[in-house]
């Protein structure tokens, strides 16, 4: 597997205050937990339908597992959790650890930049499946070589079951009116400007650079997520077996 040189934007070392997460994210997730409920239900449905056929799961960017349904985690005998956020184990433990311990699920944490450590982790666990938890669309906040890193993922993951849900587009939007936000939908084509215009939500969208994460032909689930009342994200999710 090809390793990636350490070209970084900002500090990509472990810590509790992250450019793309950390303590501020935990506080936001707690404050807006009810606002996030529809998205969590969508993720639970998506992950519930994924059958990776593995006893071990490598979870990249799990944070506190705010979006990870407990029944899904219980399907595995071992979880390897890779996250730069050093505060994540505490919040994850509060949410999931006791139930996972009762179910006999072993947990191991690695506080490293996944771009640097993932090739080694994959080599040591050839039978493990991989799940990227809303981390790939945030990679540009941590690294200036994010495009090259994303391009290497198919090489690293060849012959392995893996899934990802990640930011595809986001926009500043007024709080939802009486019609509510769009519903999740499935597409065989990547989301593009034509799709975005169909929803007539905004003219100014941020592209998170994840158009090439899922291989061509992958069924793509598009999940709406209002992270805060005035910020809307389209999350793209898919799996490869």
Layout of helices and strands, plus pairs?
Elements: H1 23-31, H2 33-48, E1 56-60, H3 70-73, E2 78-82, H4 88-102, E3 106-110, H5 114-124, E4 129-133, H6 146-156, E5 162-172, E6 185-187, H7 193-199, E7 206-207, E8 220-228, E9 231-240
Parallel strand pairs: 1-2, 1-4, 2-3, 4-5
Antiparallel strand pairs: 5-7, 5-9, 6-8, 8-9
Please describe what this structure looks like.
Strands 1, 2, 3, 4, 5, 6, 7, 8 and 9 form a 9-stranded mixed β-sheet that branches. The protein has 241 residues and is α/β, with parallel strands linked by helices. The chain has 7 helices and 9 strands, in the order ααβαβαβαβαββαβββ. It has helices spanning 23-31, 33-48, 70-73, 88-102, 114-124, 146-156, 193-199; strands at residues 56-60, 78-82, 106-110, 129-133, 162-172, 185-187, 206-207, 220-228, 231-240. The model is unreliable at 1-11 (pLDDT under 50). The chain is globular, with a radius of gyration of 17 Å. The two termini are 19 Å apart.
Provide a short characterization of the protein structure.
This protein is of the alpha/beta class and 241 residues long. The chain has helices at residues 23-31, 33-48, 70-73, 88-102, 114-124, 146-156, 193-199; strands at 56-60, 78-82, 106-110, 129-133, 162-172, 185-187, 206-207, 220-228, 231-240.
